């Protein structure tokens, strides 16, 4: 996952294809999906988006496509939209060198939902990597504050951060 975000020569298309299929299959098996679903990627920096390395967004789009394909096989009507509904209030900087406590503090007030949702809006939140869950927790809080119901969270990779750092 780190290579997909940082390495120019990493074959991320193939990797993300396999990953998104596996995540979509898991969602299909584990979650009773509503007829209408939003898939929301965790926010990323403007720099990462402009460089084409918004991996959470790529995963969200891939999972949406795969879920639609699976639904077609089972002849189930689903409306799935990938929506960039989250953003940073200001640049919180990189999380890479921070401890778990510092990560949570850094993210708590940095993420906001860009819109209000009806109480029926059900969301699957997607991120590429998690270490402490600070970004995901802030994303869930921002979405739920604006009325959404997060019914699932997908993560492409979990960083092996030690317990002492969290």
UniProtKB/TrEMBL annotation:
Domain Phosphoribosyltransferase: 121-155
One Pfam family it belongs to: Pribosyltran
Domain of life of the source: Bacteria
Transmembrane segments: none
Membership in a protein family: Belongs to the ComF/GntX family.
Name under which the protein is recorded: Phosphoribosyltransferase domain-containing protein
